[in-house]
Fold:
Amino acid sequence: MRIEPPIPSDVLAAVRAPFAQMGADAIDPPTAQPLGLILDLSGEAMRERLILVQADGGAEAALRPDFTIPAARLHIDGGKAGGRYFYEGKAFRAAPRGREAYEEFLQIGLEAFETGAAPEADAEIAGLAWRAAAAGGRDDLTLELGDVGLFGAFIDTLKLADALGARIKRAFASPRRLREMLERAQQPAATAGAAPAGDRLSAMLSALPEAEAAAVLQDLWALAGIEPAGGRSAAEIVHRLAERSAVARAPDLTPEQASLIGRFLAIADKPAAALEAVARLAGPGGAKLEAALKGWARRLAALQDEGAPAAAMRLSTAFGRDFGYYDGMLFEVRSAALGDHRPVAAGGRYDSLFARLGASLACGAVGCMVRPGRAWREGAQ
Amino acid sequence: MSEPLILAIPSKGRLKEQAEDWLADCGLPPRAAGGERGYAARLDGLEGIEVRLVSASEIAGALFSGEVHLGVTGEDLLRELADDLGDRILLMQALGFGRADLVVAAPKSWIDVTTMADVDEVAHLFLARTGKRLRVATKYLTQTRAFFARHGIIDYRIVESGGATEGAPAAGAAELITDITTSGATLEANGLKVLADGLILSSQAQLAASLGAQWDAARMGAARRLLRILEARARARRTATLTWPAEADAAARAAVERQVVAGATARPFGLLVAGDDVFDATTALADAGVGPVTVANPTYVFEAASEVTEELARRLLLQN
Structure:
């Protein structure tokens, strides 16, 4: 395992200093975390970055790839409504194939599990990450911003049929599938509007009211001697058939709409200019998008108060679409010398994390981490 | 005396029989070498080669790590070792036996799921509804991960299966599986169906060379002799020899010439043609008045050069 070399204590102290004023409790979560939990939350793509450990007869575990899940678990176990947690410790990630990278490295970070105004809290955390990253002495830093919620709000302004809109929003996290959908819409009629492949049974079932269709499907299973498996009910399956046939019947995405979506995803600019471009593209009338844009105006103002220079910021509508568990604003602090795939700091909002961990907590969740080894001007990787 | 070239062949089951039959058919029946309880053998008529009988999965690992020079094992096992075999293993010859497909299978009760695109969408919905990712049970992690990535599926996770993978969905341990199947009967019996575009690999036994093994001139020489015979036999199985007493006239010579242009090899008063083309060729020759044409299957067809052996030599040179 490639281990990050020690970082000079004065650099560490400088990177740590901005965290001291945040009023957070220090935590020291277990190094080994349950493998199943990490994969459920982050997806199979994460597996090749994990370093697995297993005690004799024990469940498979991974050395923590970050502190977010461990911190959230500690918070749930603590039983408090809200809390702020600070950590400093080693995290572990296997180097991607063919790339040199430290596999054991230091992270300093903070997780804020609180209710309260999201834009200001987002800015507070992103500002913290910026100041901590900059404290390492690099002068080539930029703050890359994104918001995975903007896409859905923009799609709503297109006033698509419900099923089609839902399908497109789902495709956001899968760039390839969305690209295929957009390309199909922009092709001439031959392939556009082609109904999804379906047999007569599917067609028949989707023509029935859903409750009735579910009952018919259960009868069919019984007749054919099929034992339902795979954790999907008859109701769920006929609902998907109905939705699919609704998509097939509803007007397809027009070439104009597809082109608007494509142009939306291409927006990457100084935050103010990017938001203006989004508003211009959408036109008036989208309440959700307008609220999101207002939120961003507040977020940017607060970010400036936090000391993040406007000139170093960039907002991209497509940024972070295939990242694990973020569901709102997200950001990376990047160094030109290190390149885009070695962020100095990263973070964002992931309000749905607690629900996904099975806890019903009303608080929001936003956090960040800094890699002191990368923030350090003489550090690397 | 120099160290021998090591050829590993499967030590048990149907694959062992088929590998031994194949070598015998090539004129190189493995003879058990005394002593080590029948786990070593030599090939009649070929010096400098030691045959080792090892389990098929261990052969894959031994080729990867360089413990053996050549090996016969399933392509599914080889491809499971790494996303890219490129710098470790060279596939030399597809052997036509040990056929099996690695496929993605879903519960039959999922009548709305017939393609990988359906899996993608259902996985997304499943995650949104349950907060959990769709689980895919498999013994073939590497190939499954690569295949799902090619289909852009992200909302799933693999559950490593130790034993009977096909039972995982019914047991509630996974929603989907990927597994090896020959007839699909086991999947069928477990209430599963193969997805229309769910073929990950159409596998068969392969003769493979390890690029990481210790190679030297003597071993390369032994490999060259062995491969030349194996290839000559494989080529012979694909070809037929046509002979006739004499070509009568210009029309007959032109008919023969047309066969050569179409891919046959000329012989004095004869042709070497691909097995599939035999009757087309005999018909064309008869029409041009050439005959009587005798057709025979050659035992070996040796060519002066072997592309795959040259490729091996080239790659080994690059390695060193």
Observations:
- The domain at 1-139+360-381 of chain A is CATH 3.30.930.10 (BirA Bifunctional Protein; domain 2).
- The first strand of chain A starts at residue 25 and ends at 26.
- The two ends of chain A are 14 Å apart (CA to CA).
- Chain A has 15 helices and twelve strands.
